[in-house]
């Protein structure tokens, strides 16, 4: 009984620490998670640099850190953060302060979100590739909806809802850390990059340079503000194919599109 009580107190203490640390944002890297779960899936890291910030283990760890880093640079948001209480964080009131940050900060957040959406599309594609030959039906919308740390219905700009989702999802994921789930997405990401690099090795120098340029151009595309396509046009359907379904825009097939929708 005493053991169970101690365990419960430890869990409650950890949950409070998570909320407080996320409320402060700048100390998100110190959030305590169950290290025993991480040990089963991660190799022992080099400890030469003791000041190195610890990875939270989340598959969107880099995105979380980059958003926090950008927000910390905005004077208005930093002041609001210092006076906010836990309830302001949990009920989304602090997220609404995003409307008052500088244009430069908002533009940088928009860029980060577009990069993250592009990365998630790549993860979906990798997951689909891994499922080939296993007689599995892949529901692209369901795959996209499992990424709860951003608003996938708006892939172009970072809005208050995105900040609210990021904070709430990170809090939930760290309180109920599922190492296997997060490591699965990390493996898909590494697999996709490995396949790309192996493919480049099969090309001659000229074609390799062309492929690298195409890859860099595609990455740059997601950093730029996209144009607004007319509803129902081919460009708009291709945008849904790419942004919502997570499919390769170069493989757009109208018949397949309408079967999915």
Automatic annotation (TrEMBL):
Subcellular location: Cytoplasm; Golgi apparatus; Membrane; Secreted
Start and end residues of each stretch annotated as Disordered: 211-261
Transmembrane segments: none
GO molecular function, one term: calcium ion binding
Keyword annotations: Cytoplasm, Golgi apparatus, Membrane, Phosphoprotein, Repeat, Secreted, Signal
Main location: cytoplasm
InterPro entries: NUCB1_N, Nucleobindin
Protein name: Nucleobindin 1
Pfam families: NUCB1_N (PF25434)
Domain NUCB1-like N-terminal as annotated: residue spans: 29-171
Composition skew (Acidic residues), residue ranges: 240-251
Signal peptide segment: 1-30
């Amino acid at each position: 009984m005493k053991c169970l009580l101690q365990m419960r107190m430890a869990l409650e203490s950890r949950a409070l620490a998570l909320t407080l640390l996320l409320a402060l944002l700048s100390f998100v890297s110190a959030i305590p998670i169950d290290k025993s779960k991480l040990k089963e899936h991660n190799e022992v890291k080099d400890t030469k640099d003791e000041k190195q910030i610890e990875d939270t283990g989340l598959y969107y760890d880099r995105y979380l850190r980059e958003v926090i880093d950008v927000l910390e640079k905005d004077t208005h948001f930093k002041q609001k953060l210092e006076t906010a209480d836990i309830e302001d964080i949990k009920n989304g009131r602090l997220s609404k302060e995003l409307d008052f940050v500088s244009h430069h900060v908002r533009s940088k957040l928009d860029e980060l979100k577009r990069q993250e959406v592009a990365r998630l599309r790549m993860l979906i594609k990798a997951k689909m590739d891994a499922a080939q030959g296993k007689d599995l039906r892949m529901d692209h919308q369901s795959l996209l909806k499992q990424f709860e740390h951003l608003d996938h219905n708006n892939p172009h700009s970072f809005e208050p809802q995105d900040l609210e989702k990021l904070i709430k999802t990170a809090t939930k994921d760290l309180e109920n850390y599922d190492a296997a789930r997060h490591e699965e997405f990390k493996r898909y990401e590494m697999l996709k990059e490995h396949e790309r690099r192996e493919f480049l090795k099969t090309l001659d120098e000229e074609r390799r340079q062309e492929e690298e340029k195409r890859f860099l151009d595609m990455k740059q595309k997601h950093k730029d503000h996209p144009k607004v396509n007319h509803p129902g046009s081919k460009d708009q359907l291709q945008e849904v194919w790419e942004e919502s379904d997570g499919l390769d825009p170069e493989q757009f097939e109208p018949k397949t599109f309408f079967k999915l929708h």
